[in-house]
Protein: Fumarylacetoacetate hydrolase family protein
Amino acid sequence: MSMHDDVDFRAPDHRPGKIIALHLNYPSRIAQRGRSPKFPGYFLKATSSIATTGDTIERPAGTELLAYEGEIALILGETVRRVSPEEGWSKISGITAANDWGLYDLRHADKGSNVKNKSGDGYTPLGPAIIPTTLDDGTALDPTALRVRTWVNGTLQQNDTTADLVFPFGQLVADLSQLMTLEAGDIILTGTPAGSSVAQPGDTVEVEVDAPTAPGSPTTGRLVTRVVASEHPMADYGHGPQVDDTQREEAWGSREAAGLDAPAASTAPAANTDLRWEPSAPTADRTLLTESLKTKINETAVATITAQLQKRGIQNATIDGPRPMHPGKRILGYAKTLRYVPKREDLFKEFGGGFNAQKRAMDDVKPDDVVVMEARGEPGTGTLGDVLALRAQVAGATAVITDGGVRDSAAVAEVGIPVYYNAAHPAVLGRRHIPWEVGGTIACGGTTVQPGDIIIGDDDGVVVVPPALLHEVIDAAWEQDRQDGWVYDQVKAGHPVDGLFPPNAEWKAKYQEWVAQQ
Structure:
């Protein structure tokens, strides 16, 4: 089958035996949903829901939340059972575009199975063309270099790639084939990125999948669906429509897109206003950490940097208590600060829920930030979980440091962003904390941290370097480490430490001779 041929998946020679859909896979969607799956989760779609390009989809009378989800569809090329993740992709013969339509008004009817929500007639458009996994010139299609895009009335609404999927395509085939036989022609829908939203009668929704870096930039072409209003309402002998603001927010993608008001403002100083932001806190000079300076810092021990700060009269620059969740990983970046205060029930009701300071801190992360949390050394509740760790990582943070606890610690570890923390604890932060302030001067692990301070960490611990002293301290520490390395080599060669560690005038002269030869 050429990638340029249009295919009707309703025809007997192309109709799949089953359609299996994945809930969440793209980091952008996971961050939006606020749920971080450890393993893939699936549901089935009826083959009678298949449509093709140019077809219409009806929104039942009396409903409002018919939502599109542009996706990549995998087509099984052979019958398989119990294959490994490494083998899984080789069992796919081609890919095509899909639109996993859903009616959020009926999500309550079949929670988990999605039977009525996702399997209506026309709810699974596929096509128009298939991109084979082996291209016409013999090139193998790269499953990590695909792109899916969705347009509504000509405006691009979804645009993402498969470069960093949580569950690679081979894993999906392997996972499903453990307990069920996947047959040639079966289709796996692989999740949608952020940007899924609600369509209205009269809208035209188009989905395209392509491989922009492959030879010839193969594409499925645009899968076109037109939304129309049905005159038929849901009958009263089954579940009828049921919608609340939560469903509206999830269907549209945000409260703002759904036209919902923000949570009612309090008469007390609000956590989301500037009234509790530290007015005198500095902002980061984000030009400090050049690539050459980063290299030099990463070659220098935190212990040596700490010693150089002490020589300059700064004795209390280490964040004491938190230990690395990922030993062997260094951290470096600009401090982004978040402060928790002790829980007081009336204030937690005001400021603990919704888009609170904790969530705002993670959503506002910039590349090269290190999120530093003041939790008063309280280990008896979580200040970080896997979803917010993932959000920080996706936004570009290099690490998270908390002098409190971490919840879902195994899942946080799997996210992979370096984390320093005091303890693991199963309780949510509301047991002991109120997220209070972003961007202020804080105390973490017994030292003061301001936004824009340079945070450096290794297995020994974390040090806070004032930006004004950065170059001076790093140059001196790097040189000290080089000298200490030379002394180590002399001791290894059999020289006694007396007069050598630290080096006296004679040994200093020998060291300078060695430096001159480098």
In short: Residues 470-492 form the longest helix (23 residues). DSSP finds 13 helices and 27 strands in the chain. The first strand starts at residue 19 and ends at 22. The chain has three domains: 19-252, 274-468, 472-517.
